[in-house]
Design brief:
By secondary structure, the chain is of the alpha+beta class. It has 4 helices and 4 strands, in the order H-H-E-E-H-H-E-E. A two-stranded antiparallel sheet has the order 1-2. A two-stranded antiparallel ribbon has the order 3-4. The radius of gyration is 23 Å and the shape is flat. The termini are far apart.
C-alpha cells in the first residue's frame, strides 16, 4: 500500500534520492588518474524495491522493440548482432580490411575451421 501511495502522490522520500558512490578501479589504468575508476551508485533498498515494482507494472503494459537488447533480462548485445560483416579502409594506406563478428568466441571455433566467405580477400 505504501508504494501505491507513492505513485498516487507522485513523491518519493528524500532518503530514497540519496545514494553512496563508490569507485571501482579499472585494473588496466593508472591509479592516480580519476578516469581510471568506474563510479557505482548504491541506492537505498526501499528505492530498489520500488523500482522493481514499477518496472514490473510497466513491462506488463508496454512493448519493447525487438532491437532493444540493453538492460533487458535474458538479452544482450551479442543477441542483437548474430553475424555482422564490416568493411573499413585504413587511413594511412589503400588497404581495405574486412572484419567479421560472430557469436562464437575463438575458443568455441574449431581449429582449422573454414573462414567466412570473402574473409581472405579483405586481408
Amino acid at each position: 500500500m505504501f508504494f501505491n501511495q507513492v505513485v498516487v502522490e507522485k513523491t518519493v522520500l528524500d532518503s530514497w534520492l540519496k545514494y553512496t558512490t563508490i569507485r571501482i578501479w579499472k585494473k588496466k589504468a593508472i591509479l592516480a588518474d580519476c578516469t581510471s575508476y568506474l563510479p557505482i551508485h548504491l541506492l537505498s533498498h526501499s528505492m530498489k524495491i520500488f523500482e522493481r515494482i514499477v518496472d514490473g507494472r510497466i513491462r506488463d503494459v508496454t512493448q519493447l522493440s525487438t532491437n532493444q537488447c540493453g538492460f533487458v533480462a535474458g538479452c544482450s548485445t551479442v543477441n542483437s548482432t548474430p553475424h555482422t560483416s564490416e568493411t573499413s579502409v585504413c587511413p594511412n594506406s589503400n588497404a581495405t580490411r574486412r572484419s567479421y563478428s560472430d557469436r562464437k568466441t575463438p575458443r568455441e571455433t574449431e581449429a582449422g575451421a573454414s573462414f567466412p566467405p570473402g574473409f581472405r580477400e579483405g586481408l
